[in-house]
Amino acid sequence: MSLKDELVDASRRFPAPLAEQKDGSLLAEFVVAERKSFLSRKKLTYKCHLRVVEGKKAVRFYEILKESGFGLSGSDGMEAGFSFKKETYSTRGKERDGSVEEQSRLFGKDYSYSFDFGAIRHAFQQTADKAGYSFSVCLREGSV
């Protein structure tokens, strides 16, 4: 089994497995949390992109956690809800480990989620290490 196949296999326990792209790289993207209300919508998306460089026996990895949203939100005394978001992380060089947790109440609905984004990178790094490949984290997606 090639390293690409092993990485795809390791990604099957996550919400979206890696998919091979036209350029030979591997990509996974999924929505971690989504909140919809009357006139607004917020979404937290995780994306990772990696490439196996066979000649150098290396794996290059990029990841991003992106929050996007649109719509109206209340800002006067008649707020429609409240939210509490906690992110814990530690940095070591270019890598960031941690988790994001949110609890919110909007228009009478409770929303909550917890996501450990460091676990995905660690799973891929362990797979690469077992195969004897080096693993590097890139700061720009174009560097993958």
Structure description:
With 144 residues, the chain is mostly beta strands. The protein has one domain. It is 15% helix and 53% strand. It has two helices and eight strands, in the order αβββββββαβ. It has helices spanning 3-10, 118-130, and strands at 19-20, 26-36, 40-53, 58-71, 81-92, 95-106, 109-116, 134-137. Strand 2 and strand 3 form a beta hairpin. The radius of gyration is 18 Å and the shape is elongated. Residues 75-79 have low confidence and may be disordered.
Briefly, what is this?
The protein is built from 2 helices and 8 strands, in the order H-E-E-E-E-E-E-E-H-E. The chain is mainly beta and 144 residues long.
Radius of gyration, CA atoms, in whole angstroms? 18 Å
Mean pLDDT: 79
**In terms of structural class, how would the helical and strand content be classed?**
mainly beta
Q: Tell me the total number of β-strands.
A: 8
Question: Order of strands side by side in the largest beta sheet?
Answer: 1-2-3-4-8
Distance between the termini: 23 Å
Number of helices: 2
The fraction of residues assigned to DSSP E strands is over 45%
From the spread of the alpha carbons, the general shape counts as elongated
Low-pLDDT segments: 75-79
What is the number of independent domains?
1
**Secondary-structure element order, N to C:** HEEEEEEEHE
